[in-house]
Amino acid sequence: MILYGSSLSPFVRKVLAFAAEKGIELDVQPVGPGDPNPDFRAASPFVKMPAFADGDFRLADSSAIIHYFEAKHPEPALIPADPQLRGRTIWFDEFADTILASCGAKMFFNRVVAPRFLNRPGDEAAAEAAERDELPRILDYLETVVPDGDGYLVGDGLTLADIAVASPFVNLGHLGCDLDRARHVRTCAYVERILARPSFARWIDREAAFLARTAA
């Protein structure tokens, strides 16, 4: 099975971590948005990451790929069967993709992607506005729902909800984003615990090394 994309994307990273928790081996083919790779384009009609191929079967979008994994490899279950728990899991996946990751992208794209990889200045005003006006509200919400201690967002074990919500925080970490640990103490502790799992840690270390090389 082939995954096209870069783990610097929180969506690609989400798929990689989910696959690792399932014990699914993936052949990761590095590509970026708009990449001319014909196989990537065949799998992703709008040339966005991630894209996926399993033999002749092709698929795009992180959540679609993850649901394919869950159906094909049901154990360990990372999307609950219980209707209420499943609904909550899908909500957190949607929240992570469309609200949390969207906010982080305004910072990461304008401060890292545009200047380092597109050779053009980013919109620092947009990045500052996202960090100042959007991120605190998002973190305030998470502080009301993340568990104390060793718990998880949904049910009694790790689910897609935890993987999806934790992934965008890696990009905030790469930016050196200074989270208010006194205001969001539970959120910071929860995210650190999820990102310390081997399914995330291996990619975070590689990303940090790559970004250090490109900073010169």
Quick summary:
The protein has 216 residues and is an alpha+beta fold.
CATH topology of the largest domain: Glutathione S-transferase Yfyf (Class Pi), Chain A, domain 2
Q: Quickly name the level 1 CATH class of the largest domain.
A: Mainly Alpha
Helix content: 55-70%
Quote the distance from N terminus to C terminus.
Answer: 35 Å
- Strand fraction: 5-15%
Structural category is alpha+beta
Order of helices and strands: EHEHEEHHHHHH
Assembly state of the chains shown: single chain
Tell the overall outline: globular
With helices defined by DSSP (H or I, 4 residues minimum), what is the helix count? 8
What number is the mean pLDDT?
Answer: 96
- The domain tally reads 2
- Unreliable spans are none
Q: What CATH architecture label of the largest domain applies?
A: Up-down Bundle
Largest sheet: 4 strands, mixed
Give Rg in angstroms: 17 Å
What is the number of E strands? Answer: 4
